[in-house]
Description:
Number of strands: 10
Helix content: 55-70%
Distance between the termini: 133 Å
Amino acid sequence: MGTVLWQKRRLLRSLPGTSIIVSLATFLFLWPFAGNAAEQKTQDVIKTPAPATSTVTPAPSPPVIPAEEVAMQATQVGNLIRGFARNLAARNEIETIQKFLPQVSDDITLELKNTANILKEQPSLETLQAQEQIWQQRQSQLTIWLNVLTDRATKLQVALTQLKKLEETWTGTRDAEESAKTPPPILQQISATLAAIKAAQQPHQAQRDEILNLQSKIADLVADCNTALAQIAGLQQMAVGGVFTREDPPIWNPDLWARAKNTLSDRVPKIAATYWGDILLYVRDPSRHMPRHVGIFIALSLVLLAARRQVGRLANPVFDHPFAAALLVTLMVATSPSSPVPVTVKRLFEIAGLVPIIVLTRGVLPPIVVPAVYALVILFAIDTVRQAFAGVPLMGQAMLVLEAVAGIVVLGWLWGYAARRAARGLGKTSTLRRLVTTFILFALAIGLVAAVSGYMRLARLAIPGVLVGGALALELYASVQVAMGVVACALRVWPLRLLHMVQHHRDLLERRIYLLLLWLVCIGWLFRYLDYVGLFDPARSMAAGFLNTRLERGSISTSVGDIVAFFLTVLGAYLLSAFIRFLLEEDVYPRTRIATGQSYAVSSLLNYAILTIGFVVALAVLGLDMTKMTVLAGALGVGIGFGLQSVVNNFVSGLILLFERPIHVGDTVQVGNLQGRVRRIGIRASVVRTMQGAEIIVPNAQLITEQVTNWTLSDQLRRIDLPVGVNYGAAPKKVIDLLESLARAHPQVLQNPAPRALFMSYGDSSINFELRAWTEYSNSQQVHSDLTVAIYDAIYAAGMSFPFPQREVRVLSDHDAAPAVPSNPLEKKAQ
Length: 831
């Protein structure tokens, strides 16, 4: 703490004009007290004459503790010293830093050498980015340690300052009490307290010096990290900016071949020694996490084998090749940018990771793509080996030419093979595949010309860029297969398998998750590929600039990013609402025995609430001041009042339908001449499906203001009223018994209430009865038809008949002047 204050004072004094500013500030601050101070000083001079030999003002003497308070103050000092001792003993973090700092220092020294060798070999952007992440991780760890030590040193300095003040106080107290002839016990207690204070200062000072020493060492290591990061950043800028700069002579230059012959014999043993040394370092050094990687592989293998035994062999390559899936995940962890595995070992792991990738993807890829995958894997392995010989003249250049030529040959053969298959009618080549193939051929051709001509930066950007992009896409696709295997297993084991939405829609859930993973993989591939070619930071800057573009119209000002955030928030609210409603309908409502209409009302209200909250949040994200929305709301209210009366009326009617629930989804209603089943109650209108299959859009206001017949509001029962007329010769009681027995015999007619037959009236040609029977509404029409047929057969079987009206008609001729008077009254009636 004292060192920091001294540095600040030295910096302050070094600034021009600082002394003048400080003096002026001090004068202005002390001005109000100047008069009183001068007056007090004058009085003091009058009362006490100044010494004749000196005019220097003596330093203020430390406060003296009264004798009656010495015991209490000594107890407090003892408690304070014990508290300082406990804080001093809590040095676990310091011990951890002291324990690992030598190893970290050795690792940084070794990595500095490795980084220097890598930077001499003209590394690719991917290698530079890996090195940058390693040094950023080292720098972050050292910065955390430095902050811990700084905090500890500050606390020690505070304790030392407080102990120093206590020492001065108790020293002054001892001198005063000795002059005042204080009893010996008081003097002994004062001396003991002073000894305890001095004894407490020594370990604090020693630990503070120790921490300052550690700070110095860590600061040096941080400086080494900054130096390495600066060198890497410079090479990254050169690799991106000097693409069209020729680095090496053309490949046909004879001097290049001569230098390559002389250098290759010396370089191969060094490369082999470097790889072997890094392999031994990875195996022997526990900080490189080899035991952890082995444990991950074994654990994943056992988990996948157990999952395969439980769920069986699903249509997923993970369960067909569990060891390949476990190996792929382990190698992805080992080759991650934050992994402490040496760079050369990571290269070997990248080559080894191609084996499980092929095993997991060859069964799910189209057959025509499989040869391209094999060629990609071989060329990527060659390119990984090329990075080890990057510093050898001609070697890296020749290997780039070989990769480009091999890639062009393979793609040309595949292009011709696909054309021949299309000519035979065995398949068609998609437009996207042709575009991708054309782009890759163009990139390889540019890389080939650049490598032959000596433009190595352009060649390393084009050829390895294609190979790394393809290998990365293949790796991410294999990781999707592994993830889908985990998802398929999770949906078939407890507890997810107990969910109704999993039981009924497992295939749908797997398809949606697969599409989501593909989108995430595509985005991740784009980010990593841009990072590899060195365009991630420029692309991010361009995207940030575009999103920060201001759009102003009058007093309204917003940005493209706010608009994107607005739509994303609304979309997120919609997706959240859809998922919650899906979960409720599949797993909550069936378990709570809630009615269909009530469940639909709850889901609709929840949907409106989530969308409303999402819209309000989206407006806040857009940057609109919600307090200023009152004017807009007032204007909108006026507009609604005049122009959207019917819309608002239907909306409020829809809310009434949902809250009051006179009509449920699934009810059979009749509105005027319209009869059908309610399919949906929307925000403005409802959908009614008629018996003929037509869907009628009915405004909600019509369902509220008009008379509506709901056949299934309280229950699903329907009474069938079937009129029957028989001849006058039939016995009425016999007819009633016959009708009731027929109704009771029907399996879909309810026995409670029991069916009843009633004698209704005397007709002109028949005596009229009516059969009343109860059944489910959904079966009413079929039951009506069955009873009608059964009554027809039973009436004739019982010797009765269905009469029909009879009329006698006479046709009179024109020559009949006066019609004859009928003698029979019945004939008169017929006339």
